[in-house]
Design goal:
The chain is α+β, with helices and mostly antiparallel strands. The chain contains 10 helices and 4 strands, in the order E-H-E-H-E-E-H-H-H-H-H-H-H-H. A 4-stranded mixed beta sheet has the order 2-1-3-4. The mean pLDDT is about 95.
């Protein structure tokens, strides 16, 4: 199967999918889409995702000769999980799977939409007000994540195995640092991040710094 990922280097949603691909050892062509230069608003990109967002996963398979697209990061990860079941990202037990999905959704549904630049710009054109807005919602979401994850967390959000929750958490903690949100109130999350930075090769392999455009 031929896969192509349209992504932006600093997009947290894009990073989630890069992590999933790397964890599952699945190759995909990486195609950069510049959000700053308006490439995401082009007709060609909107034909892949009507919202004009990244990431977008394009694929061809034996069952359908036409290119097919997925345009939201968590459905992409679920599709990868079902298509490439080796190196799983969800636990076996159905309650545990629901718990992992709940952690992922704290980031995906409760934090990410509110810290997104489009939301910030709608809220205020004042950079300081936008920063305060992002800091508030990031802190609120991480506080909930810390409380839900801490009883069962090990080196990862759920025990000692990487899950889709971690794929959402790592980019979110990167964004927390960008917005100068201290991780000190979230010791479990800070410990999980330090473990990834020191011991998880796919963290470094897929990090935004690897894909940052060089002038």
């Amino acid at each position: 199967m031929n896969l192509r990922l349209y992504h932006y280097w600093r997009s947290s949603s894009s990073w989630r999918v890069r992590l999933a691909l790397a964890h599952k050892k699945v190759s995909a062509e990486m195609v950069a889409v510049s959000l700053l230069d308006g490439e995401s608003e082009s007709d060609s990109h909107r034909s892949r995702n009507p919202l004009g967002f990244v990431p977008v996963l394009e694929f061809l398979d034996e069952t359908n000769p036409k290119k097919r697209y997925l345009a939201e990061s968590l459905p992409m990860i679920e599709w990868l999980e079902e298509t490439y079941p080796e190196y799983p990202l969800l636990p076996h037990d159905r309650y545990d799977r629901a718990l992992v999905r709940s952690l992922a959704e704290i980031v995906n549904s409760e934090i990410h939409p509110l810290q997104n630049l489009t939301t910030q710009l709608h809220y205020s054109l004042d950079p300081e007000k936008r920063k305060e807005w992002a800091q508030h919602w990031i802190s609120e979401g991480l506080r909930a994540y810390e409380k839900l994850a801490s009883p069962g967390a090990g080196n990862f959000s759920f025990g000692d195995a990487l899950t889709s929750a971690d794929l959402c958490l790592y980019p979110q903690l990167y964004n927390a640092k960008r917005f100068e949100v201290s991780l000190e109130p979230f010791p479990t999350l800070e410990r999980i991040l330090k473990h990834a930075e020191a011991n998880l090769p796919i963290y470094q392999k897929t990090h935004p710094s690897v894909y940052e455009p060089r002038s």
